Structures are given as C-alpha cells and as structure tokens.
Amino acid sequence: MLEDDLKRLRGLFADGQSVAHTDAALVPIAAARNPASIKPLLLMLNDDSEDHGMWSLVHAAEQFECMVYITHFIETLPDLVIASRRWASIMMMRVLNSEEYKLELVRQLRDASVSSRSTAALICEDINQTDPIFLAKTVPVIIAARNS
C-alpha cells in the first residue's frame, strides 16, 4: 500500500501536477505514519523544481519523532546529496536549527555507516562555505562524523 501511494505521488511530480494534487496524494502516506516513507519522500526532493510541492514532502517526512526521523535521515543522506544537493543542505540546516535534532544527529552519527558520516560532514562543510553563521552548529556534526 505504501509503495502504491509513493508511486502515485512520484507520478504526480513527473506530470507537474499542482501542489493541491501533491498534498492530496500525501494524505494517505502521512496518515499511515510509516517511518519507511521518510527516505522515499526525501528522495523526491528535486533541485530542478521551483519548490513545487517540495515543502509538502519535507513536512510529511519530518512528522516523525526525533530519533526515528534522524535515523532515516542519516540513512538517506548519501542518496539525497546525489539526488538533490540543494535540498540535502536545506534538510541538514533544518536539523541543525533544532537543538534536539542536532544532538540526536551527533549521537547517531557515531554508529552510522561510513558513507552517511562522510556525507553529513560534506554537507556541513558546504553549508559553512555558503553560510558561515552555521559554523557553531556544524562543527559538532563534522567532529562526530570524522571521529567515529
């Protein structure tokens, strides 16, 4: 059922449907509250889109409890940075802007895969290059990613 709902949602994006159609297609996915939806939702984020429906995807993915969301976010990072580097940075900044989520990210990075850790560090370094105001927030993530 989740896979069918995700397939329908992907089709709407491919057809350039309206945000209203996207939001309607997200209703059953969000209502199911299945953490397995986090990765596919994040991987639908698209740098080539003018944020058309992208924020709806973000909100649906972020609806989960902190620990659950961060677990799936970390697992998704290596694929997300390839699929959509801009949205990977945006999603990381959203995590960094929450002290609870940032601390959970740092905690979980210690046990994450090498590719997830290196991707987290890369994204944080990119953020530092474009927006140095994040430096204090990114340093703990970079240290956790590199010292694990």
TrEMBL record:
Residues 18-102 form the Immunity protein domain. InterPro entries: Imm30. It comes from the Bacteria. This is Imm30 family immunity protein.
